[in-house]
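Dear colleague,

Thank you for sharing your sequence with our group. We've completed the structure prediction you requested, and as agreed, I am returning the results in plain text so they can be pasted directly into your records. Please verify that the sequence below matches your submission; if there's any discrepancy, let me know and we will rerun it promptly.
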Amino acid sequence: MPLLRLIPCLACLALSLIWDVQLPAASHAHCQLTQQAALCKDFQLSSVPTDLPKNIKELQLNNNPIRVLKNTSLSCCPHLKVLSCASCCLETIEAHTFHNALNIENLNLAKNHIHTGYQQTSQALWHLAQLKVLDLSENGLTENMVSLFLHNMSSLERLSLSGNIMLRLDQTIFHNLHRLEELNMESNALFEIEGGAFNSLQSLQRLNLAFNNLLCLVNFRLTRLLVLNASHNNLEWFISDQDVKEPFHLQTLDLRDNRLLFFPFLPTLSHVQTLLLSDNQIGFYQHFANISSLNWTTHVQFFNLYGNISNVTVELWDETLHGDISSVELLDLTGNRVVYFPRGFLETPNKTVCGPLQSHHSGS
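Please find the predicted structure tokens below.
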């Protein structure tokens, strides 16, 4: 009988010990702890909690008024891989903040004010040699600030710079990003992309330039790119580099809501499957070139903003310049000025064309 009475007591003691170990993790004063993640969103925190479990690999601090990440803020989290500080009113990350969290691979700093202390913050980011995903969207950043942030970011694979105030891209801004696969530049104020700005991005597969002020994209030569979104700009020209001999891997080209007058000059060797051209001013005009009384020019040469002659010369009325569209499966020309297609333009089967024509006749 004494032994039988002892067994339930031992069981209760064991259960009590387990409860004592798990209870603090499940009912932390400022965070919800699940496995190896600390979810501290919307707790009105002004700093990072100092008593978090040392084994956590993910820390979510979104929507807290944390103006500064101090040098000691992450000393409790040496194994951290994911850190999210979106919408925290964050102004500065002190230079040594990540010294005890060098394993971070995914960092979300979206919707903050890090332009205020961008110099210290950039120094802090340079220590993250394993960083793969970085979100700097909506932080009031200029191109000079961004260039400083990216100075030592060769490990990056995905980068978002959307919703900032960048005006132009030069040849140095992405110089070290050889592993970058996805770049989001949506909703800035970009009006110029200097030739060679993307040359270092040899691994780039997805590029978003939508909702900017770009006037033209010429000498396009990103052969490994799969998706390009340049919709909602002021583009009048899209011209691929016709001298590139290797095939382009581009599958989706989105040029909706621009000011294109001519069908985009696609690569000679193309794999484009989806071509979105709605809400432009596209037409085919070769029949006008035969009307001598119009005295229209047949060639145009492009100049950049510095007055240097570009090597892009286009014969305006040559309708073969639309490039290789044999792989196109969806072509959206809704809201354009197309009244006819050139001879042979749609001879490839299995092609879907959106947008009714005003009239139909073959090209000359």
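Summary note from our side: Residues 1-27, 303-309, 357-364 have pLDDT under 50 and may be disordered.

Kind regards,
the structure core
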